[in-house]
Amino acid sequence: xxxxxxxxxxxxxxxxxxxxxxxxxxxxxxxxxxxxxxxxxxxxxxxxxxxxxxxxxxxxxxxxxxxxxxxxxxxxxxxxxxxxxxxxxxxxxxxxxxxxxxxxxxxxxxxxxxxxxxxxxxxxxxxxxxxxxxxxxxxxxxxxxxxxxxxxxxxxxxxxxxxxxxxxxxxxxxxxxxxxxxxxxxxxxxxxxxxxxxxxxxxxxxxxxxxxxxxxxxxxxxxxxxxxxxxxxxxxxxxxxxxxxxxxxxxxxxxxxxxxxxxxxxxxxxxxxxxxxxxxxxxxxxxxxxxxxxxxxxxxxxxxxxxxxxxxxxxxxxxxxxxxxxxx
Length: 328
Description:
It contains 13 helices and five strands. It is elongated and about 85 Å long. It has two domains: 5-138, Toll/interleukin-1 receptor homology (TIR) domain (Rossmann fold, 3-Layer(aba) Sandwich); 146-327. The chain has a five-stranded parallel sheet with strand order 2-1-3-4-5, with helices on both faces. By secondary structure, the protein is of the alpha/beta class. Residues 38-43 have low confidence and may be disordered. The chain has helices spanning 15-28, 36-39, 45-55, 77-87, 128-137, 140-182, 189-209, 215-220, 222-226, 229-252, 262-289, 293-307, 313-327, and strands at 5-8, 33-34, 58-63, 91-96, 119-122.
């Protein structure tokens, strides 16, 4: 069994509980995770550890207070796991628990001098949902999994689009035939193509936004949704598709048969967009409270995209705070 992710932790202390929680969360996302408390069986312990690290793409290091203290000992298991991951060039991601202080490079063995330069995410009870999403975003396994899922989604969407275009064309053609029985009308090729494009944009928007939360769900649990970038991407893409459909309807008028209530659906997405924007603004404030400057900057970038084309003075104020803290 090949593993995607190896979790290294110190078995005594708070790190063991967090390692187990992360294993469960990651496996629920479809990743194959190695955690030695479950996976070690018969055979030589070092060989099984080495094989698991060789197979994985990502190496998660749980950093509880005192985790790195014993790494000065050459036979320490956590040290040996880190050295193996470093030597094999694995993507090392640190997860720091409250109370952990990263030692200086000079105080670590030469084989571990790069650890203080690795990405480290703070894991607290209050922000563990947001922290977990940030960790998942920075895994090589996530990017590879997303590529595979994207290829599948593209294939399915392409098939669905072809079916939808075919059905829409026949519905539109029958509508023209029925109208011609009462009054002869001439429909230009441009109008026919406009109707096809209209239906195509609407079907894409529906497929993209089918599983999005409503505005009230975003308001009540914004921390989850500001951390889930795929929801943001689907929302913005869905709005763009509906806008394209509305432009066609405005230009071609009666040639477009709108049985989808495009305007109403577009307004629903606008409400979600407003709720998500307020969520990002709230999250920027929260990140600044704990001095997470980089996270705050990322959230502010998303907020500016959601606010377009309107200007929001509060975003400029937050930008000023981030710039001031970055320069200190």
